[in-house]
Amino acid sequence: MKATELLRNQHQQLEALFEPIEGAEGKESRALVKELATALVAHLLIEGEIFYPVAEESLAATTEVRRSYEEHALVEFMLQKLLKTDPGDPGFHARASVLRELFQRHVREEEDDLLPRADREIDEGRLEELGKQMEARFKKIQGQHADNLGFDGIEVANGSIAGRVAEPRVRALNRKTYQLAETGGSDAHFLPVIGSAYTSYPGRTAAELRRAIEDRTTRGKRDSSRTSRPCASDQSSRSSIATR
In the chain, what are the domain boundaries? Predict the structure, then answer.
């Protein structure tokens, strides 16, 4: 199956998973959201890891792909909020509805532009090859995430302009609501900000970093001597999102 066909099929399957959540209650709601989240996380990852890099290179679609990554960030953030909301909470169905709207908007833009262009301009054999890679990766991700959909950390420090603007609100939200491990990351789309934000933790090894995330002892920091001003004209609106 071609990569474009695989993505269209998954869009339909995911839309079908949203439908029953609207009328569900209690434990049924929780089970339905978990099923949706397992498939949605895997879908977003295979798009971001495999399809988008090829589309950006083959179609010269840098702007479209960057926009898609931003839409992924919004969907992921809303999904995390929904996963942390009790089905009995008055805001549960409202958050499910907003998540669905964000997903539908993303699908429309992708199916109206990026996927048709890929069908026209990328060799069919290449799309078939990508489809096989994506399907295999999708199944592997589903198996890994089916029983572990929680997030351990949230990016509170980002070197981009939008990241700096959002930082106080994200830090406050994390303190009041999520209480996740802090992380800092650079917006690698722009050379001037690479390395300007980072995660500080007690230790030096990957194992010590993992332990620090689990213990909530990490700190997201920025290098105040670095600036993102040179790339301001290219910076699209970003949102700080919870990261695994």
Answer: 3-145, 153-243
152-161 residues labelled b (16+ CB within 10 A) or e (exposed): bbbbbbbbbb
> Using one digit for the tens of pLDDT, what is the confidence trace for 78-105?
998 898 888 888 899 999 999 999 999 9
133 touches 75 (CB < 8 A)? no
Residues 149-206 pLDDT 10s: 556 788 888 877 777 777 888 888 788 776 788 998 866 566 777 788 899 999 988 8
Opening angle at CA 43, ends 155 and 10, nearest 5: 150
Per CATH, which fold does 3-145 belong to? Answer: Four Helix Bundle (Hemerythrin (Met), subunit A) (1.20.120)
**Nearest to 73, CA basis, from 243, 244, 241:** 241
- Threshold 0.70, pTM exceeds: no
